Amino acid sequence: MKFIDAHGHLFPEKIAWKSKDIVSRFYDLPMYTAGAMEELLKIKNAPGETYTLEKQLVCSPSTSPAQTHSINLFISAMCAEHNFLVGLGTLHPGNENFEEELDFIQESGLKGVKFHSDFQQFNIDDDAMFPVYESISRRRLPILFHMGDGKYDFSHPRRLARLLSIYPDLVVMASHMGGYLHWQEAYDLPVCENLFFDLSSTLAFIQPEDLRRMVDKFGVEKFFFGSDFPMWNAYRELDRLKTFGLTDEEFQKIIYDNFVAFEEKYLS
Question: Are 27 and 80 in contact (CB under 8 A)?
Fold first, then answer.
């Protein structure tokens, strides 16, 4: 059975294991592995698994303006070398040259923009970001937002609700089912044509009824499978999702069909 992993991270080999330790300490969670390309290929080529990884979305947020271009160069180079990757670029709120960087993102074949406001230390609905969002929306590039956190308020679902009310045409992939550790507030998000969710770093923390009511409200077509590589093992997350009481058709849509349709509409 083929699947698409719609949320993963890649880091250059020389910093991948250091990044693993930093992220693990930040979330106080053990990580499955490090986000090096070699580790991702081990997952893709793992023998004896029920599922086959067909595509992997990858990104890496910049934590300073100076990192932005080098990260975008790295992700685009990895995607050029490995055709199963779908890459997103990054921007930092401090990038004054964001238009030039967005030009590069598009020219290099990257498909959207990732923000992790808890690492980047900004509110996702900060008015200062509106020119950036306006340009991204104009270019019809999707945004992958890290959503929700137990430590900070930067990516609270209510901030996304406000942003969507201002920019209804913005194409948003709200990670962690729209609000890691803020499940009720994620459920309270408005139903929007261009709002989608991934299930990365979610299944270990919710009950089946939490996913069911989200699917019933927003529609199963709005959900993508994600492992948050290198945080979790994708195959074990698929096994976990199998226990959530989805129909076979819903399961197939979430792990494969929905992202195929999303890619055709927004990433081509």
Answer: no
pTM: 0.96
Residue whose C-alpha is closest to residue 88's, from 67, 104, 99, 100: 104
CA distances from 231 to 19, 132, 201, 204 (A): 11, 29, 8, 12
Q: Going by C-beta distance under 8 Å and a sequence separation of 6 or more, which residues neighbour residue 206?
A: 177, 183
**Residue 22 is encoded by which pair of tokens?**
């930093």
HSE, CB side, 13 Å, CA atoms: give it for residue 149. Answer: 19
pLDDT single digits (tens) 37-60: 999 999 999 999 999 999 999 999
Q: In the numeric block, which tokens belong to residue 77? A: 């180079």
Torsion angle, CA of 97/100/18/80, rounded to 10 degrees? Answer: 180
Strand order in the sheet with 2-5: 2-5, 52-58, 85-87
Look at the alpha carbons of 42, 45, 51, 54 in this order and tell me if their dihedral is positive or negative. Answer: positive
